Amino acid sequence: MGLPPAVNSAVSLAVAAGVGAAVGGSAGTASAYNVDLNNRQLHEDSKAKEKTLAKTLADNSKGKYTVEQIEDALRSANNRVLGETALTGAVVPYDAKTFFNIYDPSSLVLGVKSDGTYVLMQSQQIFTAPSLDLQMYIKNSTDNVYSWGSGGMQLSSIPLSALPPIMSGTVTPEMLESKRNDVADAAGWISTQSGRVGAAATAYATYLASQPNAASQTGAAIQLGIAGTATVVGFGASALEQWLRPNLGQLTVSSLSDFAAKPVMDRFPAFSPAINEALEAWKNSQTASGWQDKINEKK
Predict the structure, then answer these.
(1) pLDDT at position 126
(2) Which among 7, 38, 10, 30 is positioned nearest to 160, based on CA atoms?
(3) Which of 6, 99, 223, 281 could form an SS bridge with 95, CB 3.0 to 4.6 Å?
């Protein structure tokens, strides 16, 4: 999937009001004015475990509230501990950095501004404020970490004619996952190519080092420097791929294979390219894939 045009700047509150305009005309716009500020992304990271909290609260309610009801209620709340308002993360530019800024994609929809640039924003479906009894249940269960405002900001000075419509038929989670996989694939490709460059540079350095002249010795040092740089780049690309698309089985099999092949490459550096290609063929073999699957099943 190709990237849409980059969003030039952060979207103002007017964009959020556009959600209501697109789905409900004037009535929808008024609704957006009053409650759109009560939407934010939920954390399930080093900052907080809000999705885990939602499940715990749902379980403790003995069936009175569902996980989805509590998650939507938390999205519409301010968080005192995190210092986040209900607006935090409610509107995100849709560009090459989107997946770094999205950590709660389940409630987002795609919007397009009048200039053709894109944004992701909270869905109209969760704009309804939670019931008072649900608010009190969450407050009492979290020592008043969460709070809900009694009214939203009035944006009457924003011209509605300039607000963007919402593109229908968009499935945001799949779109974000596709972007993430595209970058992970690119990182994996860079890692593989770095291995090939490093192996070729090592083999050429071995040849140059065998030549009895100063120029060849200098060239050998340069080639070894290239090989070292390629190793660092390959390691970084592999780390990025694992961060974007964690795969313990792949990481384990790949690391063990590299560890086993290193003494052979060190013993026969001139044959590093051939050894590296054999190593890559092994990593992509059905046997290696089967080992990866077994490791992943035991996680």
Answers:
(1) 53
(2) 30
(3) 6
